[in-house]
Amino acid sequence: MDFKRRRLAVTLRNQLNYPLQFNPFVFSKLFLLWIAVGIVGGVIAGFYWTVLEGLLHFLAQFQGLYVIPIMAVAGLLAGLVIHFLGDPGEMDLIVNNIRFKGGRLEPKNNPSMILSSWLCIASGGSAGPEAPLVQVVGSTGTWIARKLRIKGEDLRSLSIAGMASAFTALFGAPLGGSLFALEIQHHKHISEYYQALMPALVASCSSYVIFLLVTHIGIGPTWVFPIYATPELNDFFYAMLYALAGTAAGWLFIFTVRQCRRIFQKLHVPIYIKMMIGGLIIGTIAYFVPLSRYFSHDELNVLLEEQFTLEFLLILLGAKILAIAFTVTSGWRGGFIIPLFFVGATVGMIVNTAFPGQNLPLIMVSCMAAINACVTRTPISTTILLATLTGFHHFIPILFASLTGFFLAPKTPLINAQLGVKE
């Protein structure tokens, strides 16, 4: 024991004599690669978003009955792109490749993903750009790693860093985007990917700065939420209570998606016909309930600003769930995170309208957190993302709601690859 103490004392004295130096890791090859992946991701995300905004403004001219043929044609064209350029896959494929193929995301189908998702999102599909960008930027990380002969866990980390930088560019939350890229891999824990957290954070920060420079989007909450007063102890319990409504909506959404998936699996037709049929259905829903159209990035602010009756909110809830379900099961490309937040906000409005006098911002953020955590199994990142997007900076009530949705989620996740079983 005395020997160990003397050795420790000598070590401490030697450390005191060491000159102060920079951490050599900052100048390492891997650190610079993480920054490079983030910069490339920010450029790609900025270019993608700029073109998408232009297409959205152009196609937004077509309203009323024109919505139905526009979305049918968009589905047909997007399907033809996928038919001739290759199927880029969906989130299940990304998670499977990260888990079972050493993190290798194939970039060969990126042109197909970019073109088809532009058509699907801009024409009014109820799916957002996060999933396409995750595939494109994540596979770019893989491509960079291959060119530099990087293998093993470093390659996987670069792919995850690319995914995180894509999430961050769109959501404006480097920490939330990084954790989402890790949490989405598995619904039980993220410990096996913890070593990828630092690459994801570094890439996310550089991606966010570049994305802001390219798009000139301001820094601040995306949605203008009502002001939330200082939290009280009871708010944590109310958050869990309100989260039950969001979780129920999550169960309904998962059930609806599975039923729609069965319907389209029975259609033995080419992908472009299936997507055209999907476009007709989504377009018809959008014609009767216009607020259900698009991926709800802007529509959520409309929901917050205007007053709606309980009957309309219930119709909107059903229409939006059906629109998202038909979008993601008919082959249309896009992600459902932001649309799910819209569904959660609608549920919150329904609860507040049915039982007036409640804490509206707490109800809405609780329902939004619960439904997303229920469907995507990402309670930690959901908490941080929502706090950033809504300006609701009291994390604990959101976390209580997220955990409620996570633990009350169905046994089998919607993203089958989260089961951890190779398909």
From TrEMBL:
InterPro entries linked to this entry: Cl-channel_core, ClC, ClC-type_chloride_channel
Chief location bin: membrane
Membrane-crossing residue ranges in chain numbering: 31-52, 64-85, 158-182, 194-217, 237-257, 269-289, 309-329, 336-355, 392-409
Which superkingdom heads the taxonomic lineage of this protein's source? Bacteria
Subcellular localization is given as: Membrane
Identify the Gene3D superfamilies for this entry.
Clc chloride channel
For molecular function, the Gene Ontology terms on record are: chloride transmembrane transporter activity
Keywords of this entry? Membrane, Transmembrane, Transmembrane helix
Q: Which GO terms describe its cellular component?
A: membrane
- Membrane topology designation: Multi-pass membrane protein
Question: Pfam families this protein is in?
Answer: Voltage_CLC (PF00654)
Protein name per UniProt: Chloride channel protein
